[in-house]
Structure formats: structure tokens, C-alpha cells
Amino acid sequence: MLFKQKLFLIVSFLIVVFCGFGLLNLTYDASVLAPQQYYQIRSLHTLQYQKVLENELGRAGYLLLLMIVGTLQILKQAKLEILAEALPIPILFESRRKKLKRFFKLEILNIEKIWFLCLKEMLKQQQRFTTKGLAYIAIDRTSWGAINILMVSLIYNKKAMPIYW
């Protein structure tokens, strides 16, 4: 898969899962670069994500992921150079760019290895995702120029949570 396509899919996944569902309420303070003070967990429902992502990515990778998501929320665009420039890590710009590039090239960052593990953990709490014992699934196709995405989603709390695309 081309780097730009993988970056697009990863950024789409991060935005939909973390930002779209309000799972993280990230606040930014330019004077504080410490990752521990960079984000604030808003809901206990994120524990499933935290466990899976931290186990798979390691603590440093997980904190980098949270910083990337927070920075994307602020920037509202996903260009590697702009993201590297805004990422609150006290290293040179070129080092941040290379760090991001290496992170996005990780084999673990794909739908089968990360998202399915997160989804499996979430679905263990079946009562959260069913209404009267029924789970609602939606299929949607979106087209952006040459990009055509077919998405299967689980409907939860009047929002569509992507299962596969």
C-alpha cells in the first residue's frame, strides 16, 4: 500500500474512532510538552482502547498516538509536514517528520491488527451495543474523487462506529 493511502486510512481511523465518538477530550497547552499533561481522558469507555493500543504499540507508541490525535484535532488537516511541525515533541523538525513516518509505517497499524482487537474488546460488553437484544449494522459507500470507500458500521448511541472498510 502506498504511504499516502496508508496515512489516509490511519488518519481516517483515528479521527473517526477517537474524535468522532468523543472518546477523548484532548486539550492543548503549548507551554507544556509532557504527554501526561497533554491529554485528558473523558470517558471510562476508552479503557478498552487504551488496553489494546498500549499493549500493541507499547507505552511510547501509545503516547505518540495520543499526541498525533490531539494535534490532528487542532490542525484539522493531515499533511505529514504540517503535523510534524505542530507535534509537541522537543526535537528537530526533520526528526519529528522521520519519527512520524516510521510510526505510520509500522506493520501493527492496520485494520486487522489494531481495530479488530479494539472491536473485539468493545463487543465483549454486548449490552452496551444492543437495543432490546439487537445490534444494528449499516453499510455506506462514500466517494471522494478517485477514492471509493465501502464502510460497514455498528450503530451505537445514534452514531455509526466503523467495523470494516
Helix count from the secondary structure assignment: 6
Share of residues in strands: 15-25%
**Cα end-to-end separation:** 15 Å
Low-confidence stretches: 19-45
Helicity, as a percent range = 40-55%
| Helix and strand pattern | HEHEHHHHEEE
Radius of gyration: 16 Å
Spatial sequence of strands, sheet with the most strands? 3-4-5
- Using DSSP, what is the number of strands? 5
Largest sheet, described in full? Answer: 3 strands, antiparallel
Give me the oligomer status. Answer: single chain
Number of domains: 2
Query: What is the residue-mean pLDDT, rounded to a whole number?
Result: 73
**In one word, what is the shape?**
globular
What would you call the structural class?
alpha+beta
Keywords: Membrane, Transmembrane, Transmembrane helix
Transmembrane segments: 7-28, 57-75, 134-156
What characteristics describe this protein?
alpha+beta; 2 domains; two-stranded antiparallel ribbon; 6 helices; transmembrane helix; membrane
Task: Explain how this protein is built.
Mean pLDDT is 73; it is low at 19-45. This protein has helices at 3-19, 35-38, 47-75, 80-86, 93-104, 111-123; strands spanning 24-26, 39-41, 136-144, 147-156, 159-164. Helix 3 (47-75) packs across helix 6 and helix 4 (80-86) packs across helix 5 (93-104). The protein is 50% helix and 19% strand. The strands form two sheets. A three-stranded antiparallel beta sheet has the order 3-4-5. The protein is built from six helices and five strands, in the order αβαβααααβββ. Strand 4 (147-156) and strand 5 (159-164) form a beta hairpin. The two termini are 15 Å apart. The chain is globular. The protein folds into two domains: 3-124, no CATH class; 126-165. It is of the alpha+beta class.
